[in-house]
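Handoff note, outgoing to incoming analyst
You'll be picking up this chain. Sequence as last confirmed:
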Amino acid sequence: MAETEQYRVPCVYPCSKVNKVIQVEVPGSKSITNRALLLATLAEGTSVLRGALFSDDSRHFLSCVQELGFAAEAEEEEKIVTVTGLGGKVPKKEASIYVGSAGTAARFLSAYLGVSHGIYHLDASPQMRRRPMAPLLTVLEELGCQVRCEKEEGHFPFTLTSNGFQAAKMTVDIGDSSQFLSALLIASALAEEDVSLRVVGSHGMAYIRMTEKMMEQFGVRAERMPLAGQEAERMPLAGQEAERIPLAGQKAECTVCYRIQGGQRYRAREYQIEPDVSAACYFYAMAPLLGISVKVRHVHFDSLQGDVEFLRILERMGCQVREEAEGIRVSGRDGGSFQGIEADMSACSDQAITLAALAPFGDSPTTITGIGHIRLQESDRMLAIVTELKRLGIRCEMGTDFIRIYPGEPTGGLVETYEDHRMAMGFSLIGLRAEGIAIKDPACCRKTFETYFQVLEEVAGQLR
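Most recent structure output, in case you need it:
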């Protein structure tokens, strides 16, 4: 199925088995897998990562680690990766690596190599070549790395000639991606002296909190420092999302400042990777859409992943959400009725496409805000959402930072996915309730969840 040019989604609405609880198991988290891979290479000794995701992105990351000379072995059936780190040293002083379309590999490895010692040539897929790298590369240059972009400035491919940390203070703008900050936080442990890291912008702070927690789990602490004056007012409280990045024309201010104490070292360990909550959300979204109950095994509210906030959005739409021993259970209303809402999705923007796919079936308009930055992800996701909904006959509007979607009956049609796995998975939900929906290029899901459509078929079979 994954090799076909399109996938016809089985319409299962109305469901004949609404009283049955659909139970699903999803792969390991991509975000956690790739962070754990990097942290394991930075640690001294051998780490064993269990429950790892095996997808295009994680395989590219693992391949890069091996190309740099690290001893790293994968047991895909057992979902285990074993990595032997060298305490922050890169085995090869010169290497060429290809990160594919993996944003985490692109940003995390660039930061690591940029503050190491050696000459490193990095390239990426055409999709990743279009995505921004300039904010990170600018910081690396300020730290003493020589950066030579071979085509477009601020984009792949480029060569890094690195000389370790030559400065102890840096400022990074995360308006385009929070991965720039995560990358620099993790790499800062390589400095011998204390490092001060100021941050401009604040979207994606849920992923930053994940990075902070995982650094601590591997033995290194990044301390958030108090800010003075007006900056202090913008500092997010624990558990809260910071104010979003300013819109075009507005002045960006420092939102967070970190201190990373010099001389800290990552420690090798055994590490259990959580299930991918981003993947789980596609199945949880079936609860309001079809009026069923869905439980994803081993997903809990204490997850490191920010997308667990999407379940609170489903709750606002009328779902019942209950944590059970085996995992969180979400139950929709009989008949698949739910209310449209306004939702700031800056804390879980990967699910903007998921909510957009549900929105046509709501009883009132849905407005999704806080998502201006998703224009710069695997595709221009804001434009993709609006284009494909309109293609299916759904009225919607788009602003700089929001999309508003009105209730309607989607017509059949072929959904263009723009080489974007989240467009493929998210818009497949529409076809479960509307006849005649097909997904173009379903194989793009290999980026994070290569068996998604197989699991979808299994779920549909239980509902027929």
